[in-house]
Amino acid sequence: MLLTSSAAGVYVICPTPFTIDGRVDPASTDQMVEAFLKAGATGLTILGIMGEAPKLAADESLAFAKQVIATVAGRVPVIVGVSAAGFAGMSALSRKVMGAGAAGVMIAPPSALRTDDQIVSYYADAVEAIGPDVPFVIQDYPLVTNVVMTPKVILRIIEENPSCVMLKHEDWPGLDKITTLRRASADGQARRVSILTGNGGLFLPFEMERGADGAMTGYAYPEMLVGVVNLIKAGKRKEAHDLFDRHLPLVRYETQPNLGLAVRKYVLKRRGIIASDTLRKPGPKLSPETVADIDWLMERIERS
Amino acid sequence: MLLTSSAAGVYVICPTPFTIDGRVDPASTDQMVEAFLKAGATGLTILGIMGEAPKLAADESLAFAKQVIATVAGRVPVIVGVSAAGFAGMSALSRKVMGAGAAGVMIAPPSALRTDDQIVSYYADAVEAIGPDVPFVIQDYPLVTNVVMTPKVILRIIEENPSCVMLKHEDWPGLDKITTLRRASADGQARRVSILTGNGGLFLPFEMERGADGAMTGYAYPEMLVGVVNLIKAGKRKEAHDLFDRHLPLVRYETQPNLGLAVRKYVLKRRGIIASDTLRKPGPKLSPETVADIDWLMERIERS
Amino acid sequence: MLLTSSAAGVYVICPTPFTIDGRVDPASTDQMVEAFLKAGATGLTILGIMGEAPKLAADESLAFAKQVIATVAGRVPVIVGVSAAGFAGMSALSRKVMGAGAAGVMIAPPSALRTDDQIVSYYADAVEAIGPDVPFVIQDYPLVTNVVMTPKVILRIIEENPSCVMLKHEDWPGLDKITTLRRASADGQARRVSILTGNGGLFLPFEMERGADGAMTGYAYPEMLVGVVNLIKAGKRKEAHDLFDRHLPLVRYETQPNLGLAVRKYVLKRRGIIASDTLRKPGPKLSPETVADIDWLMERIERS
Amino acid sequence: MLLTSSAAGVYVICPTPFTIDGRVDPASTDQMVEAFLKAGATGLTILGIMGEAPKLAADESLAFAKQVIATVAGRVPVIVGVSAAGFAGMSALSRKVMGAGAAGVMIAPPSALRTDDQIVSYYADAVEAIGPDVPFVIQDYPLVTNVVMTPKVILRIIEENPSCVMLKHEDWPGLDKITTLRRASADGQARRVSILTGNGGLFLPFEMERGADGAMTGYAYPEMLVGVVNLIKAGKRKEAHDLFDRHLPLVRYETQPNLGLAVRKYVLKRRGIIASDTLRKPGPKLSPETVADIDWLMERIERS
Hints:
4-hydroxy-tetrahydrodipicolinate synthase activity (chains A, B, C, D); homotetramer; DapA-like (chains A, B, C, D)
């Protein structure tokens, strides 16, 4: 099952669960996969920035990917982040996870890229590295990568690389970018690819209204993301915003850079989805005051 | 009336109103000042990043500052942003606005600063430039300045410069930073200064709970900021969060980098507070889709 | 006398001389102008990055520019750096110095620019600010500005703005960029503008061989720059490199970021060209060890 | 043979030789090792930034390291760069190369680090990852890493980590930093570690005079680096500078960012030290004009 341009719904960005002493936790991994599928995920994405991918050794990454793919067992597509400092590492990981049954890979640009041509060339080289038959996702996340891609650049990458099937959109601000990209494909100027949005879902209802096909992001209550996507698709705008706004205080708290992942893991632990909220170093620790904030936010969400 | 370490409440960050053809708009300036005071502002801050200060010529900045100070006429303190590429410009503007009746000045660090000592030295030089008797505010806004100040560095600046009376806190994440700074002054390790928080108010109720004295930020409904600060001070936690959460969807929309100011000016215009939502170049223009989003958000706030 | 696309030779980047107590030094200014003209300068450039322009107040900048222009008295063109945080400041300074007799202005892009279109738009807005009849120079200096312009972007700026007459080239590496730009104008794909090179002259003989028309840079022995440019133009390659290589140890020492200007001012002082090597804050101070290094380098140059 | 604080001389930074089709080239690797030892290297450093380390897959890195260590066969110490995006990768590589006989490892800080405490903590975590008994080298190279370490920070790292035995110094400007660090150890404020300097050798004679113990850098004629170090140690200042200055035109050409490694590999190929000057993507290609420049520079060096 390979990823295609018609992918939609909610691809949940999975954290990598660790035990208290920092080893990858296989039991929590399985439990998390089942919880996310039960929440309505139409896909899973692993080894992304919020999956602490750079903190894993090469063999750990591969073992984790294989386990997730095996547990999912074809129920939904699994996308694997293969961003790497060099193409040799990207190529090796990509080949192995595709061999293990991944649906596609996701590639974020390295932070040194500046000009339009540098970005376009980088994706051409990346496609050469992973092979032209591997479906891939562009990750457009300037807050973290420091690489700014105009719609024009994204369209060039789509045009020049038939294996590009999706944009993980998390530019900020980014709503007009969705509008521009969708207009370009509606006008026949460009091939239409799937657009799933990120940024912890912070703008999800608006993004859907601009033409996104769904979300590819993490949030400790992924059923909310699923609910919002479905409500918007059903034309229930007010209900979608009502549902979303009820969660927004926690979404906002979870989108704090660096700290956000610790928040998310804490909530997932409290919800019984993973066993420990351990992050590998370097990573923040939650202060007692922060824990109290999160407890307050969870209580307000769950009460309503 | 000079700014002191006991400043509290809501210091509204004022945009600079322009006419449709881009000149500073004196009529809107007066109207805006009165609206913000009526909303409960305990102070005003002008010529900050969100005041488009770098887009004004030197004489325009001074004229605008003088007008605001004259209109306020001593009802509340006025703080003037004097961040500049060099100390000669900072010194000149500071001297002139203090002469015109400003309560103090605000200084953001230039983006080239990296090490702890560079940051501390910079503020020492800045104090030399503005004079040791001018109360000043440290602006700690890494998302925009790219300068990261640890609590330790902030405490060193406070310790070495008696004229430092306030921290405009907008680190992100920043809640634990407030806790750390407040603990340091509670423990007698450091002089207590006022902490007013920024970031468009995105974390305001939590920031108050961590020990902030109020907010120094902009938002198109500043009465909400005032309400939240007062409710928290009155111990009404739930009511504070309820009020805040009702506005959070728009707060979130307004905190989009670059675009946010255009959103804010549009709402201020629709509320009759300024005549035009013009931004000077370089600045974004609102798309029709974005205008529709904002209208939707305003309607939901005002209906509730 | 307005700057044109046929400008050539050596436009010496002038430092701004200060007295020991940090005021602009008019006597040294005149003396420096005469020394640079005597050294063979075919133009002067003031208020650039190495002129400590951001450290001057608006009135100081203008007074300094007027004095230099008056002293030069039409003997050579004077270019004035008008890079500014905003277009209002750029417009005001540009109008005043052109009125005072400047030949053109120089504009470096602000460091926030990332994409090709952002850079091209910025120069369009800048031309709107200074007026379409004011000849201007693009400063392409990524090491300092953090803005990377491809040859394609530079050619678009040249094409869209007839008042663009010169590129101050200081990309690094940058030799192939000159080759590409010159090929584009030779092939009739683009209007030919003057290319003067910067970077403290570090690659001057090779830059001339690639098609530069000369240099626009500073070095404490500007007669060397003049000599190299003339020797290359006269076809005396070996002599040009021999002359250059004799100075290279000091050129290399002067191109150290930040420190370099202090080195240059020290040598200019020792050569009797300016009275003091004072830099305004923030700026480095030369250690005794560094002074000894420079003395050693000067001795080796002057002995040979 | 473990690396100690008394290491001195020239540790040549080795490129990773590739065949024309981009595979690691074992024959060239052996030949290069022998050539560098014959040139007088007192150590070798592999898998650094100029060794294209991030472009190698994990197994390639390890195989290359093992081969170099085996070829050297204990004649000199071999240092291996283990900088990695995460500690798991760093730990794995470090353990394996130390097991294979490396003398120590080198660690550059990741570019996200800003504050003094972040940098110090990072090295504490890194030591935890590699183990407290593995001698390590701090790489201080802000031009590439964007991390600025004050002397104070370096001294804290040395103080808190007994396994820190060397600083690879390539700050720029950096001469006064050597003076400050050496004064601190002379004054008994800090443990004395080895300081070897980098930056392609651009300031080598001055660095030696400030107290460096030698160089750890690459240059296509490493015998020049050895010669300069030995002449300075022998008190022959003039001869050292004469030798250095003869090579400076090429050193300068080789220190161009990104392009420099392609230049170095070309010269090594022409000198018969490696079979191909291939770089892995992303990497620059030499234009015919650049090749002609290098040929000219080589001719001038070899003639003299």
